[in-house]
Amino acid sequence: MKAYEIGPQTGLDSLHAVTRETPKPGFGEVLLKTRLVALNNRDIQVLEGRYGAKKAENRIPVSEGVGEVVELGEGVSGLALGDRAVFAHFVNWIDGAFSLGHFGVDYGITHDGWLAEYIRVPAAALVKVPESLSDEQVAPLASSALTAWHAVVEVGQIKASDTVLALGTGGVAIWALQIAKAHGARVIITSSSDEKLELARKLGADITINYRTNPDWEAEVMKATGGAGADIIVETGGYDTHAKSILAAAANARISFISVAPREGAPAINVGLVIYKNLVLKGIAEGSRAMLARLVRTIEQQNIQPVIDSTFAFDEAPAAYAHLKSGSHVGKILIRVSE
């Protein structure tokens, strides 16, 4: 089969095409023919050697996509040849609370990922895709969308009366906007780009704030909410925005921390304010298979269409990575592997 490997992880040039033997599914496993994959920021970090310790140079990258079942291993039931399926990249996290052990089996990181013509995966991790959903609707769900779902729905326990604040217009933030609007909530989006804020408004954002022209954006959030603050905050900004998010939070707000991007001299979190407001602070590491199944149902019921920036051919994968690295995209960057 054709595939890509991450090589020495010295930059985007480390990604290289190879030909490898097609894997065979073992007991309880399924072989998927890869149809469409989606890139995430951590795919860039892996190639640049910035995602923890360096990985095996022959690792196949990419952690989300959609595939078609082409072979069933012994002991597999509930799936048939031709079914389309997705899976969360922590494949052992089926349901229940997160465990540190889930980091040990992370497809695209510890195990071969989606950027190949075929991928072998435990059948128990798979979520079958309804026929009504397109490849484009489901390929981008298992990483940034699932993270947003975890933050907004599972942790945030969203209600239609809530105000949701999502920082930036990256993949997680845009998905948080779409998921929150599907639940009837009010959404505030921040960005340094007026063009991206305009897109956010087209997607249903109720309030948009340019943090470059309004550096005290937390005060703008409080003003826009009549002094109440945001009930759910999807914190993708990193250390330099953590303190501001706490200032922008309503009493009893739920804040999900997703990014720890370091910034020198970032203000410290006011723990006294956390106590005063009775805030819930939660770290988010993607989500379980059960969460992904609930997300897929909502995508189907609400017919949510992901924001797609561009789709590249399989042999154009390096160009897709370069486009992601440029930061000029709005929405997901996809790679078409097969029809």
TrEMBL record:
Enoyl reductase (ER) domain: residues covered: 11-335
InterPro entries per record: ADH-like_C, ADH-like_N, ER, GroES-like_sf, NAD(P)-bd_dom_sf, Zinc_ADH-like
CDD domains: MDR7
GO molecular function (one): oxidoreductase activity
Protein name: NADPH:quinone reductase-like Zn-dependent oxidoreductase
